[in-house]
Amino acid sequence: MIRPLCAFLSLAVAASPLQAVKIANPASDQLMKLTDLQRRGALRGALLDSGYSCPRVERAAVQGPWKNMIMWRAQCSVTDARFDYGIFVGPDASIQARPCGEMAELKLPPCRPFSAKTPSR
User: Fold this and answer.
1) pLDDT tens-digit profile of 36-77?
2) φ/ψ of residue 111, rounded to 5
3) By three-state DSSP, how is residue 71 classified?
4) Strands, DSSP E only, in 10-68?
5) CA distance linking residue 52 with residue 14, whole number of Å
6) Alpha carbon distance 66, 120 (integer Å)
7) pTM score, two decimals?
8) Is residue 97 a contact partner of residue 120, using CB atoms and an 8 Å limit?
9) Are the CB atoms for 93 and 74 separated by under 8 Å?
10) Coil, helix or strand for 27?
């Protein structure tokens, strides 16, 4: 009896459409609610706390979920890719930042380009 039930449940799960999962991340939600200037300042502070150089965040945008975190992008120089970062915000407000150039080596999601609609200031 258990074997047919397992087969039926497996079939039901396989037949159901995949749905996007929304990750509960209050820290990232708070970052989203800030003004653009406040958000860029908060991301710059996170980069400085992580030991990275960032004189000014020129552009910032949310990239999307990764594991239980939300990935943000911060560009500290529009002309030098060395100052392009991915910042991972955990639901407990923990921050992990990495240069975009190191993402593949670390098996992290690649930094996507900023959209043309992203405000620069």
Assistant:
1) 999 999 999 999 999 999 999 999 999 999 999 999 999 999
2) -75, 125
3) strand
4) 59-66
5) 45
6) 25
7) 0.75
8) no
9) no
10) helix
Strands laid side by side in the 69-75 sheet: 59-66, 69-75, 84-89, 95-99
The whole-angstrom separation of Cα 102 and Cα 91 is 23
Confidence label for 78 from pLDDT (cuts 50, 70 and 90): confident
Which pLDDT belongs to residue 114? 86
Angle between helices 26-33 and 36-49 (to 10 degrees): 130
Reading the block at residue 82, the tokens are: 């060395």
DSSP 103: T
Tokens matching residue 69: 């975190």
Cross-strand bridge partners of residue 64 = 71
